[in-house]
Amino acid sequence: MYDLVVLGGGSAGFAAAIKASELGARVVIVNAGLPPGGTCVNVGCVPTKFLVKAAEALRWAQAYFPEANLKPSLRRLLAEAAETSAMLRKEKYVDLLDYYGIEYIEGRGVLAGPGRVMVEGRGVLEGKRVVVATGSRPAVPNIKGLGEVGYYTNQRLFDLGEPSSVVFVGGGAVAVELAQALNRLGVKTAIVARGRLLKYEEEMASQFVEEVLKEEGVEVVRDEAVAVRRADGGVEVETRAGRRLRAEALFVAAGRVPNSEVAGGLLELNSDGSIRVNKRLETSMPGVYAAGDVAGGV
What we know:
Elements: E1 2-7, H1 11-22, E2 27-31, H2 38-43, H3 45-64, H4 74-100, E3 103-106, E4 109-113, E5 116-119, E6 123-132, E7 136-138, H5 146-149, E8 165-169, H6 173-184, E9 188-193, H7 203-215, E10 219-222, E11 225-231, E12 234-239, E13 244-247, E14 249-252, E15 256-258, E16 275-276, E17 288-290, E18 295-296
Parallel strand pairs: 1-2, 1-6, 2-3, 6-17, 8-9, 8-14, 9-10, 16-18
Antiparallel strand pairs: 4-5, 5-6, 7-15, 11-12, 12-13
Helix pairs in contact: 3-4, 3-6
């Protein structure tokens, strides 16, 4: 019997596990999918900010030393970003398991009832409390031809290689950051977004960001992508208004979907699929809590 069973090995899950361990609890983390650390350290904040800083440094270097004719290798930068992610994953997550005496199980877990988690290949784990912190994954929009064309998401960032051009579907932080960074690194980029960029930010900030992107050469198309197809060795994105944008690679960054399937149909969900919680992060099941991207408000 554990004092706490944590479903998910991302930042929210680790924070809960560490605090519980500090209070003397016997804790186990059950994790599947991304390595320990979840989205941020593996395929989110860390590698994207690595590219953003590299692109910023290159921009300044090109401005002050144009005669150097600097030509970065995106493939090499992605490899270095992956190494940085691996280093931080070990230092900030993996090494802490032994330090705090937290047990770690690699495997898919599903909530099986109050205090019960079914782990594939391991059977049922029992705990006095359960925290569901399974995060989210990239949303896949309903675009004709998307499944046949092949595309990248942040979870496949390190596979991007060395494309000459990339078209992004989506206008959130991921698309905006990467489109600008790649453009500064010499990759022609375009963004197709249904509404304004960064819709959760102030409209003034959104407009400013769009102006900066355009000034730097990023094409911004305010329209909905309705179809994609293979064309000239790359991809072609068709918008509702009839625009056609071609690029070597397609990157989908159209929002996130909560990984709430682990609730096993036992917890109340919100309309967006997130697990419904109250101000104490309690779910509809006694003794079961939810935190991080998988959790939503009342």
